[in-house]
Design brief:
Length: 125
């Protein structure tokens, strides 16, 4: 494992990632329900239509954010317990333990996340 995560850390991360995935699935279901309700309402005037378009845009943005985070969360769950978990997807170096504990779905190290280059940028791999 490229990080110094203990077995307990990994167990805690697995629980957190599963809970996060479950919460995101529930959020997506709620957005779908809200979208259905929104489109079921009839438009009485141009103001209603404008409000509906604004609300639909917000719901679509919320859904896209949740789908993206769910995909990253599921990918982290798939990597967890393998040598790939804790390795930066950009430079191949280790992702900092504190970063993984704070953001368990992180797939890049701090340096690559900031665009300053990680292990590859420092001449190591």
């Amino acid at each position: 494992m490229p990080t110094e995560l203990s077995a307990q850390d990994l167990d805690d991360l697995r629980v957190r990632l599963r809970a996060q995935a479950e919460g995101l699935r529930a959020e997506l279901a709620a957005v779908d329900a809200q979208m259905s309700t929104l489109y079921a309402d009839c438009d009485r005037d141009v103001g209603d239509l404008g409000a509906k378009v604004t609300a639909a845009d917000r719901l679509r943005a919320d859904a896209e954010r949740a789908r993206s985070l769910l995909a990253r969360t599921q990918a982290a769950l798939d990597r967890l317990g393998t040598p790939a978990y804790g390795r930066c997807a950009v430079c191949g170096g280790p992702i900092e333990r504190d970063r993984l504990l704070a953001v368990p779905h992180a797939d890049v190290c701090l340096a690559c996340g900031r665009g300053t280059g990680g292990a590859r940028g420092r001449g190591a791999r």
